[in-house]
Amino acid sequence: MKSAAPPPAPPWHHASVDAIDAALPQTQCTRCGYPDCRSYAEAIASGKAPINRCPPGGAEGIVRLAALTGTPVLPLDASCGSEGPRGVALIDEAWCIGCTLCLDACPVDAILGAHKRMHTVIADVCNGCALCLPACPVDCISMPPASGSATGWQAWGGAQAAQSQTRYRLHQLRVARGDKEHAAEMVAKAAAKLADLAAHSQHTDPAALDRKRAVIEAALARARARAEAAPVPPQEEV
Q1: Mean pLDDT in residue range 45-56
Q2: How far apart are the C-alpha atoms of 84 and 153, rounded to whole Å?
Q3: Angle at the Cα of 41 from the Cα atoms of 158 and 143, rounded to 5 degrees
Q4: pLDDT tens, position by position, 127-152
Q5: Directed axis angle between helix 158-196 and helix 206-229, to 10°?
Q6: Is the dihedral of CA 51, 57, 62, 68 positive or negative?
Q7: Cβ(101)–Cβ(135) under 8 Å?
Q8: DSSP 8-state code for residue 231
Q9: What is the DSSP annotation of 78-110?
Q10: How far apart are alpha carbons 166 and 67 in whole angstroms?
Q11: Is the pLDDT score of 238 beyond 50?
Q12: Angle at Cα 133 formed by Cα 129 and Cα 136, nearest 5°?
C-alpha cells in the first residue's frame, strides 16, 4: 500500500519569516492574536495565520504581505480591530500613582518612572500599541492620535518600525536577564537556608528539623527548575 502523498506546499511557502517580519510595523501590539510581530510572521510563513490580522499595518500592510506570500488581498479582519490614526500614550500626571504596571506592559520601554513616582512617556519612541491602557489601575493613560488623518503605513514609516523593533529586542533582553537573575537569587537564598539548618541541629527537635529541611529542599528544587526554565537572553543564545 502506497503511503499518502504529502500535502502541497502552501502558496506562501517561499516567503521567509524575516521578509514577512520586515513587512510588519513592529508595534508588538498583540492585536493579531500573537505575542509579537515575529510570532505573527512565523505563523504566516507556516500557513497557520492569514495576512489580514494587523490593524497597525492596515490595508497597505495587507497588500505588502499579499505580494510577499502570493496570496490574495483580503479585507482587514475586524475581530483584530480597525485601521486608524497612530496614537501616542499620554499620562495624566494628576492621577498617576506610580504603580509601574505600565512600565512592565510597554514592549519598547517608552515609559519612564519609578515606584510611587509619576511616570512619563517618551513620545518619540512610543509606538501606539496601547498595551499600557489596560495595565493602568487608575485609568490615567489616554492614547490621543498623533498622525492626523494618516493611518496604517502612512502614519508609521519604516524608520519608526526599525526603531520599534530594536527597542523591543532590547526590552526582551532586559526582561530575560532580569528573570534569569531573579531565578538565580531564589536558588541562592534557598540553598543558604538549607545550609543554615546545620547550625540549629543541636537546638531544634530532630523531627521538626527534618520537616523544615523537606520544605526547604522542595523550595530549592522548584527554584532550580525555574532557573533552568528561565529563557536565555536573546543576545546570549548559542
Answers
A1: 96
A2: 10
A3: 55
A4: 999 999 999 999 999 999 999 999 99
A5: 160
A6: negative
A7: yes
A8: P
A9: GGG----BPB--EE-TTT-----HHHHH-TT--
A10: 25
A11: no
A12: 140
